[in-house]
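Sample intake sheet
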Amino acid sequence: MPIKPITVPRLYQRIAEEIGQLIDAGMFAPGERLPAERALARSLKVSRSSLREALGTLEMQGRVVIRVGSGVYVSTAKPRVTARARTPAGLSPFDVLRARQLVEGEAAALAARHARPAQIEAMAVAFERLAEEMRADGLRAPSDRDFHLCIAAACGNSALEMLVERLWREESDPLSERIGELFVTGGRRRDNIAEHRAVLQAIQVRDPAGARRAMRRHLRNAERQRMMLLGETG
């Protein structure tokens, strides 16, 4: 009999399991709204970002329905049992975003110092595609990843480039994608374009400090928007 590795659930997975058990125990009936986010986080003694991830997990499992600006409701439908609906095993999406602030901020600063003209041109081309895709669709711009990886490739540090690529692979985790889908608004798309443009312009004028600030500002705003996706409901 083969020995199987022991896996330790991440915090948001444990929170999702706890809320799921409360639903199963009948504490929250089908169609009922869960307590306001702030109150629920306080009761469970967890951060709101971890709670957000747990709620996203439960939504993908079909246990709850997230209504932006209204709240989270217990689903009246039978839970889904699909590969996408299973509890994700990836890193915390908020942890990934916070790591990206540190890593990609430095990558942008180094790119402002070391990028070759051809690399800066590649960034500009990726930015134009990104802006076009965001204006046309808005949910997901494949060139967003290309733009960020162009910057990492130009930073002159292969280890840092590898870290950026690894963090972007985590961005394709189903939970991270679902949280991203929920928070995107027309206003956020416009802000996203402007924030990417600010990063590019700082690199073009060889301003390392400006590139670092612009990148970190962009990623902090992305985190802030994800925290606003359900609205201030308590």
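Comment: The chain has ten helices and two strands. Residues 82-88 have pLDDT under 50 and may be disordered.
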